[in-house]
Here is the input.
Amino acid sequence: MSALSIMQRGQKDMATSGQELTATQCSNCGEPLPAKASQCPGCGATLTAKRVPRELVVEVSDATFEKEVLQSEEPVLVDFWATWCGPCRALAPIVDEVAHEYIDRLKVAKMDVDHNQATPMRYGIRGIPALLLFKGGKVADQIVGYVPKETIARSITRVLG
Here is the structure.
């Protein structure tokens, strides 16, 4: 028997969600699979779960903010920025590092305030860069301006618990 990767229908849609995939059918014989199956009941193939990593930093818009941030099951750090903003450009690599370090516990998103004005206005963003940390669809913490990575990490640690 060979080890097979199991894939969920609609995997392309799951590619950026960061969720662990749960197979609905065997990729070898197409047999429906029970939850947490380690072996296909149809062909006997050994199954291995395949994790599809999400993008480290997701670009969000006014249109996608509700789904990507407010309805997220995991906490979300949103970086409000603009291309012309020097401190935003300086903070970007730090936000990327944070996204990498907390990939399994935190979703990281960016919103360009020049192309999306409703959401920044809704949350009172008056200066950028601004980092808002959401948990359970509500703002749990806010950081305005360029700050060192340690400041962001402390905020995340407080919110994650």
